């Protein structure tokens, strides 16, 4: 009997372990769906006249350094995106438009503020006669409205939000990483110039426990409610908290039921925070960002959601219930029914995400399910890719609206229609399109049962054909604002040649009389030049490069198809007698200095630290080895990236993986074997290295491993 009980317990433990390791699959979205189709963060919600506006950080574009953007809507359900015209600084070409806020001034003009960290972490101000711009500088000499080191030395001036009190005074609240910097800051905005802060003061840490960033002040009755974000924006700990006071300057008393918004157990809300609040007909709504699903590493891809905010009294906020009532449900819309909602869909391909954490399909049906949390994504970054909708019967069609994955980049495409699914005619030809936007709106007047979207190209290298939603309408309707974006002068992005671009083998070099002729046998050609001392030797039948004091640098430019989000594979046989905790770069091909942003740099390493496998310059994005390859033995190390997932293989087995969107900067970079662009020399031996401009699959990697295995490991 005791043995039987023991066996049962062991069975339960094993079963529990199996289920505990189950990968995350498809996620039910339903009522917790984001309100915007795309990657946006730090939302500020405003209502000017009868139109709602959401100003946000454009996320997942070079580490939240995308275009200055605004979304607008009249019904809170159908949102339209516009890239705003914002002048750059004289000294710096602006690319950070972080955490924007906007004020309607007493003069009827609109004042836009946002943070930027290219010339110190400052808040800059702009003015326009329209909520969507174009914008003019508040200070022509580029003086910040709130400067770095204000109100005290070392204080980063980011995440500014403004509050207008009943008496007309305007207060600013700002600060990030405030747990390191002594708490948030508050000051009064000069209402004459709208460009200066006076009477700044620090809010002591104990008045806002466990803070991180994103202070937001609102008033309920006679109480001032200071809401803020705690935890870390990179993971599930991010949350919304609050304190209250009788004065805009405090002192503030922490809420008794903090945090009021956190990650939930179902995974539908992960890392919520950095919010603003909309008051509508006596009700309050919290508009915040949360992480995408499947989650991009480091929280790079955030999406905007809204839920009702309920007060028990003027100083107590109830816990937010994700999926609660939204204002759009009670607002009349002029948009007719979407004829493609839940229609049958087929596609040329779709992406199956397989990683350590996920087993998730970006199904074609997600393009017509009406949700902003799901999308169809093609299987790889090749073009063309197509998506075909079956409406079920011949239907009159006047408008098609397409929401591509990235609102800030253009897509080139065409729309066709058919009655039988065989004979096609053109509904709209956007094959030369260079204007970004979401949704892309195309009008005609046809009768069809089938609609085919063919994605031909994208502005940026390595992006996949992907659609959040495609909507079909039988009648035309007014768009809230008749504004149009400007065409891009860049792109389309370079394409993969699906070739081996780098190939060098120490055995082949050793067999030659002249061992200084280090020719690249890959498709881009060129010669590897020795920088420092790089020797070649043979021991126990294995020839290898010794990189202890040098590196090999290719005399050819890095191919443009490796820039931005371009796919690649790096495969190498290496042995290192001693493995350091940092450094040990095997291959570098990006410029780490041009933007100094984590996902603009990537390189393959072999060390025991946080970026032991892949360096992205920030521990929130680097990828280490789960099982560090043992010292003083030959290992086949392979890094692949297919435009969605980075995967690290050791000796033919998947060791680690993570979802990433890259912005690789290759313009001034060199392909460098055995060291990074700042040194970080590899201290061991390398038998061979190959690089491809596409992602090899596991079977290809295992075949390559056997084909290139050094002699010693064959014995």
Automatic annotation (TrEMBL):
<feature type="domain" description="F5/8 type C">
    <location>
        <begin position="328"/>
        <end position="475"/>
    </location>
</feature>
<protein>
    <submittedName>
        <fullName>Family 43 glycosylhydrolase</fullName>
    </submittedName>
</protein>
<dbReference type="InterPro" id="IPR006710">
    <property type="entry name" value="Glyco_hydro_43"/>
</dbReference>
<dbReference type="InterPro" id="IPR008979">
    <property type="entry name" value="Galactose-bd-like_sf"/>
</dbReference>
<dbReference type="InterPro" id="IPR023296">
    <property type="entry name" value="Glyco_hydro_beta-prop_sf"/>
</dbReference>
<dbReference type="Pfam" id="PF13385">
    <property type="entry name" value="Laminin_G_3"/>
</dbReference>
<dbReference type="InterPro" id="IPR000421">
    <property type="entry name" value="FA58C"/>
</dbReference>
<keyword id="KW-0624">Polysaccharide degradation</keyword>
<dbReference type="InterPro" id="IPR052176">
    <property type="entry name" value="Glycosyl_Hydrlase_43_Enz"/>
</dbReference>
<dbReference type="InterPro" id="IPR013320">
    <property type="entry name" value="ConA-like_dom_sf"/>
</dbReference>
<dbReference type="Pfam" id="PF00754">
    <property type="entry name" value="F5_F8_type_C"/>
</dbReference>
<comment type="similarity">
    <text>Belongs to the glycosyl hydrolase 43 family.</text>
</comment>
<keyword id="KW-0378">Hydrolase</keyword>
<keyword id="KW-0858">Xylan degradation</keyword>
<dbReference type="Pfam" id="PF04616">
    <property type="entry name" value="Glyco_hydro_43"/>
</dbReference>
<keyword id="KW-0119">Carbohydrate metabolism</keyword>
<keyword id="KW-0326">Glycosidase</keyword>
């Amino acid at each position: 009997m005791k043995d039987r009980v023991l066996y049962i317990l062991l069975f339960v433990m094993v079963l529990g372990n199996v289920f505990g390791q189950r990968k995350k699959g498809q996620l039910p979205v339903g009522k917790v769906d984001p309100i915007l189709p795309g990657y946006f963060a730090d939302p500020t919600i405003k209502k000017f006249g009868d139109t709602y506006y959401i100003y946000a950080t454009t996320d997942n574009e070079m580490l939240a350094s995308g275009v200055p953007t605004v979304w607008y809507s009249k019904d809170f359900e159908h949102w339209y995106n516009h890239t705003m015209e914002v002048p750059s600084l004289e000294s710096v070409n602006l690319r950070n438009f972080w955490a924007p806020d906007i004020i309607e001034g007493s003069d009827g003009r609109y004042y836009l503020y946002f943070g930027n960290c290219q010339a110190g972490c400052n808040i800059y101000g702009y003015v326009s006669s329209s909520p969507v711009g174009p914008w003019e500088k508040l200070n022509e000499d580029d003086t910040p409205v709130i400067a770095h080191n204000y109100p005290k030395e070392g204080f980063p001036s980011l995440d500014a939000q403004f509050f207008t009190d009943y008496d007309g005074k305007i207060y600013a609240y700002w600060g990030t990483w405030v747990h390191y910097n002594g708490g948030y800051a508050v000051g009064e905005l000069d209402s004459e110039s709208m460009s200066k802060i006076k009477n700044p003061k620090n809010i002591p840490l104990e008045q806002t426990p466990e803070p991180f960033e994103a202070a937001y002040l609102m008033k309920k009755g006679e109480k001032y409610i200071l809401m803020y974000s705690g935890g870390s924006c990179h993971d599930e700990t991010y949350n919304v908290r609050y304190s209250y006071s009788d004065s805009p300057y405090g002192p503030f008393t922490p809420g008794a039921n903090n945090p009021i918004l956190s990650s939930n157990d179902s995974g539908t809300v992960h890392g919520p925070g950095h919010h603003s609040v909309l008051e509508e007909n006596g009700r309050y709504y919290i508009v915040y960002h949360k992480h995408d699903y499947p989650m991009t590493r480091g929280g790079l891809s955030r999406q905007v959601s809204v839920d009702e905010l309920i007060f028990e009294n003027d100083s107590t906020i109830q816990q937010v219930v994700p999926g609660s009532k939204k204002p759009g449900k009670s607002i009349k819309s002029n948009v007719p029914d979407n004829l493609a909602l839940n229609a049958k869909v087929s596609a040329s391909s779709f992406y199956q995400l397989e990683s350590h954490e996920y087993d998730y399909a970006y199904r074609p049906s997600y393009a017509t399910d009406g949700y902003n949390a799901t999308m169809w994504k093609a299987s790889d970054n090749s073009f063309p890719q197509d998506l075909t909708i079956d409406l079920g019967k011949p239907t009159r069609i006047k408008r098609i609206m397409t929401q591509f994955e990235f609102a800030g980049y253009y897509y080139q495409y065409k729309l066709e229609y058919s009655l039988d699914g065989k004979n096609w005619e053109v509904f709209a030809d956007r094959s030369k399109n260079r204007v970004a936007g979401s949704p892309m709106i195309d009008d005609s007047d046809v009768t069809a049962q089938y609609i085919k979207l063919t994605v031909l190209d994208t502005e940026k290298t390595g992006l996949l054909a992907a659609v959040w939603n495609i909507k079909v309408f039988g009648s035309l309707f007014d768009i809230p604002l008749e504004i149009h974006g400007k065409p891009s002068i860049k792109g389309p992005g370079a394409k993969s040649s699906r070739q081996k671009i780098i190939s060098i083998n120490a055995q082949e070099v050793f067999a030659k009389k002249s061992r200084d002729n280090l020719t690249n046998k890959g498709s881009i050609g060129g010669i590897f030049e020795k920088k420092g001392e790089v020797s070649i030797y043979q021991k126990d039948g294995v020839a290898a490069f010794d990189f202890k004091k040098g590196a090999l640098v290719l005399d050819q430019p890095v191919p443009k198809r490796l820039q931005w989000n371009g796919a690649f594979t790096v495969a190498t046989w290496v042995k290192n007698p001693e493995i350091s905790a940092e450094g040990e770069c095997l291959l570098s091909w990006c410029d780490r200095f041009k933007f100094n942003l984590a996902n603009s740099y990537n390189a393959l390493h072999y060390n025991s630290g946080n970026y032991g496998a892949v360096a992205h310059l920030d521990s929130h994005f680097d990828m280490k080895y789960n099982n560090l390859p043992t010292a003083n033995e030959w290992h086949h190390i392979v890094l692949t990236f297919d435009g969605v997932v980075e995967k690290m293989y050791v000796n033919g087995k998947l060791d680690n993986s993570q979802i990433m969107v890259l912005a690789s900067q290759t313009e001034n970079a060199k392909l460098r074997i055995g060291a990074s662009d700042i040194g970080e020399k590899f201290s061991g031996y390398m038998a061979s290295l190959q690089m491809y401009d596409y992602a090899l699959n596991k079977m290809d990697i295992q075949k390559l491993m056997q084909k290139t295995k050094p002699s010693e490991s064959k014995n």
